[in-house]
Structures are given as C-alpha cells and as structure tokens.
Amino acid sequence: MFGISAQRVVAAAILSAALATGAAAHHGWSWAEADQIELRGTIQKISMGGPHPTLDVATADDGAWLVELGNPRQTERSGFVEGVAKPGDQVVVLGNRSQDPKEKRLKAVRLTIGEKGYDIYPDRIKTN
C-alpha cells in the first residue's frame, strides 16, 4: 500500500553517502599537513562547543589562527576544560596546520598554557 519508489531509495542512499563522506572528511586529518608546527600566541576566544572546541589565537607574526581541539570528550580527558584558560592567556600549540597555505587553521595535538600541558592527541605527538 505504501510502497517505497526506487527513486526514493536511490535518493536516500545518495544523501546517506554524502553525509557520511562529509563527516569523515571533517573528522579526519587528510586536510592537515603531516609535519607538526609550534604556534605561539595569545588566546583571543575560547569555544568549548561541538563538534570540536576551538581557540582563536593571535600571533605576533601571523595574525589570528583558528586552533581546533579534539572532540569535547577527548579535549576534556586531556584536562582542558572550561575555566583552565581565558582570553589573554599565552598559549603554545603543537599541531598540524592546514594544507591550504592561505588558511590559518591548526589541529592541536598539545596545548601548553603557563607550565601546564594538555595532550589532546597523545598518540600523535611527534616531539617532546
């Protein structure tokens, strides 16, 4: 009585594949360079919301950068939780920058604020 047309099945499959591909691209590291860099600057803004908490970091040489942290649970496991840092704090970020040289975006593997380190992706840290 309420049969599903072949067109609807195909449309649903295409939509599902598109959503899965977008999620995989967002959550993967394929957009980032393999080499890690160290970024030093001042935190301008902290956002702890999903899908990834972020920091806006102003550097002396390069201007403002977007620093992506891990997913909220992973970021929390590192000890970086709301209240441990604030705008104006100095930060050192170890991470992988975007492959697009025009994009000032970095995926953090470690944050250091003052004397305290937050290893967000400990298995990805290439230097100590």
Task: Summarize the main sheet.
Answer: 5 strands, mixed, barrel
Helix content: 10-25%
H and E order: HEEEHEEE
* Strand arrangement in the largest pleated sheet: 1-2-3-5-4
Unreliable stretches (pLDDT < 50, length at least 5) are 15-26
Instruction: Give the DSSP E fraction (strand runs of 2 or more residues).
Output: 25-35%
Distance N to C terminus: 65 Å
Q: How many β-strands, per DSSP?
A: 6
Structural class: alpha+beta
Average pLDDT, all residues = 85
Pfam families: DUF6152
Signal peptide: 1-25
Organism: Rhizobium changzhiense
InterPro entries: DUF6152
Please outline the helices and strands:
Layout: H1 6-27, E1 37-47, E2 54-59, E3 63-68, H2 72-77, E4 90-97, E5 105-113, E6 116-119
Parallel strand pairs: 3-5
Antiparallel strand pairs: 1-2, 1-4, 2-3, 4-5, 5-6
Structural summary, described in words:
By secondary structure, the chain is an alpha+beta fold. Helices cover 22% and strands 34% of the residues. It has helices at residues 6-27, 72-77, and strands at residues 37-47, 54-59, 63-68, 90-97, 105-113, 116-119. A five-stranded mixed barrel has the order 1-2-3-5-4. The protein is globular, with a radius of gyration of 18 Å. This is DNA-binding protein. Residues 1-25 form the signal peptide.
